[in-house]
Write a structure and sequence with these properties.
Blueprint lengths: L10 H11 L4 E5 L2 E5 L10 E3 L6 H14 L17 H8 L1
Antiparallel strand pairs: 1-2, 2-3
Length: 96
């Protein structure tokens, strides 16, 4: 690539690249989200990457909670500019 060429990177694209570059031991798809598990190694590796809005937000959150609790992990979300749906952080704050 020449020095004057630019590559546009979106927040979602950056999240996907970081996730691929630092893979977890296990991933489970949950309605457009990626629930990631690494058996307690790091919080990022044991968090949900929410890059697509789920059809049923409440159901997706409940499924994520079950997956993490089954593994004796606290449910956690990677919240950034690309998190979907956009109000996810507010929903989770209200959810506890």
């Amino acid at each position: 690539m020449a020095n004057d060429e630019r590559v546009a990177i979106t927040p979602a694209g950056l999240d996907r690249m970081m996730s691929a570059a630092w893979p977890t031991l296990e991933e489970v798809a949950v309605e457009g989200w990626s629930a990631r598990f690494a058996h307690g190694v790091t919080l990022r590796a044991n968090s949900v990457l929410p890059l697509a809005p789920p059809e049923d937000l409440r159901s997706a959150i409940e499924r994520v909670e079950s997956l993490y609790l089954e593994r004796s992990l606290r449910p956690a979300f990677q919240i950034g500019p690309a998190a979907q749906p956009p109000a996810l952080e507010d929903v989770l704050s209200g959810h506890g």
